[in-house]
Amino acid sequence: NAGVTQTPKFQVLKTGQSMTLQCAQDMNHNSMYWYRQDPGMGLRLIYYSASEGTTDKGEVPNGYNVSRLNKREFSLRLESAAPSQTSVYFCASGRLVTGFNEQFFGPGTRLTVL
Amino acid sequence: KQEVTQIPAALSVPEGENLVLNCSFTDSAIYNLQWFRQDPGKGLTSLLLIQSSQREQTSGRLNASLDKSSGRSTLYIAASQPGDSATYLCAVRIGGATNKLIFGTGTLLAVQP
Fold it and tell me: Which residue, B45, B38, B8, is CA-closest to B24?
């Protein structure tokens, strides 16, 4: 099992460019999440998908869109990148079994917007 | 609004010491609390998960406790080793159907050989 995989690992964009961050999980989890991590602010939820076919906004959704392509894949798109979106982006998946639920994280994508 | 705080922000200890990391949250209506480890430049690795009905969980040299009423959790690391050096994050789960996590800002631990 690869767990949660993310591509790319590093990316540099110019202001106004667009890109899509890819995430896939092979654990058959129903829920998937996108977070950003900034110094001194911890991880903040951008968007999540509780199950295939559904997506919802998290704490900081502005400037982002998501697609739950299938049960395995959840992508995050920046339509017009801004320097404020320079961050480390983490994808996670989770299972919602009564009495036991936890999230598993990918290795992250380090994005710099110039 | 749920807020999660971790104190101290950074901690340095000599190898072999026992240590305690603290996590506090403002709203006691949580489903569970999870402790993670993050190595530099890496993702998060889940260490322990405590359900809201539990008081503690143990895994090897790690013991996590939860006091919902006071809004506190501790992560106890016994006989620390240099390999324990990392950032430790706690997160509380809110919202039953969505499994949303609210993270603290972490404690950076350095264990000196």
Answer: B8
Selected residues 41-60 of chain A with any CB under 8 Å from a CB in chain B? 41-45, 48, 50, 56, 58
CA distances from residue B101 to A51, A56, B54, B108 in whole angstroms, order as listed: 16, 14, 18, 20
Residues near A61 by beta carbon (within 8 Å), at least 6 away in sequence: A46, A47
**Model pLDDT for residues A38-54, shown as the tens digit of each residue:** 987 789 999 999 889 89
CB atoms within 10 A of CB A85: 19
Q: What would the 3-class secondary structure string for B18-45 be? A: CEEEEEEECCCCCCEEEEEEECCCCCEE
Residue A99 in this model has a pLDDT that exceeds 80: no
User: Do B98 and A105 count as a contact with CB atoms less than 8 A apart?
Assistant: no
For residue B99, the model assigns a pLDDT of 67
Q: How confident is the model at residue A13 (pLDDT cuts 50, 70, 90)?
A: very high
Of B4, B42, B100, the CB nearest to A45: B100
B34 in Cβ contact with B48 (< 8 Å): yes
How many angstroms separate the CA atoms of A42 and B103, rounded?
6
Which element (helix H / strand E) includes B104? Answer: none
Rounded to an integer, what distance in angstroms lies between the CA atom of residue A105 and that of residue A36?
A: 12
Distance between CA B41 and CA B32 in Å, rounded?
27
Tell me how far apart the alpha carbons of residues A11 and A103 are, in angstroms, rounded to a whole number.
Answer: 25
Length of chain B: 113
